[in-house]
Write a structure and sequence with these properties.
Helix 1 crosses helix 4 and helix 2 packs antiparallel against helix 5. This protein is α/β, with parallel strands linked by helices. The protein has 10 helices and 8 strands. The strands form 3 sheets. The chain has a 4-stranded parallel beta sheet, with helices on both faces. Strand 6 and strand 7 form a beta hairpin.
Length: 279
Amino acid sequence: MGSEAKFKPKMLGIICNWCCYGGADLCGVSRFQYPTYIRLIRVMCSGRVDIKHILFAFLNGADGIFVGGCHINDCHYNPEGNYDALSMYNFCRKLLEHIGINPMRLRLEWVSAGEGIRFANIMNEFSREIEELGPLGKSEGLDDAELSSRIKKIIKLVPYFKLTKMKELALHTHDEDLYTKLYTSEEIDRLIKEAPSYYIDPKKCQACMTCAKRCPVSAIKSEKNKVHIIDQEKCIRCGTCLDACPPRFGAVTKIIGESVPPPISEHERTIIRKNTTTV
């Protein structure tokens, strides 16, 4: 019997246009070698890379993801773009750790346009690390279904993370070591455990449409004289609906640690108002 075929990982590189892409280009022109299975995507700035980009890449089968940008204090597009990338990267690694994915599968490096050999060395080193880890989920002991479920759950919470950690994610400081201390595993666990959901009580809703008009993502299904319903798939957990609901109704409830009741059926949504006209 022939030996088992060598594992060829699916790897994605998201690199900035101004420096890292130039380094990759110089790497090719100089005939420096690195694995051909690494697919590169060019973006204008490493700060443009979003947490969702990383999570969706893993959800779609990437075994390793590389983010490359300009050196710190040398960003050519947005002076502080690579600081945004650094904060995003450290936060994302903690999320990966929480859901059981080895954080070593995500790597961030700074490469200038004149560092073709450095780019090749990083790609070769990172590819060897991913080859040793094996397919996504294998070294983590997760089957495809469980892995997919965990990633999708975290993707739904990304807008909530951005709202809650807005200050940290926007931090711009020259102390790179500080970024590694921004988020702890305990903090991430608490953040996810305390993620709120919002529910409109059918018995209290008066279909005033105030919450629907204020919702920033149009996550509330509203019609005249019909109980409003929050689309939990669209909801970003900002709490705007809770603040917007008139106190005399108090129809919006904040739920933590429990499942949201299922929405009522369409025919149950109609509000039958009492006729207050006197004869």
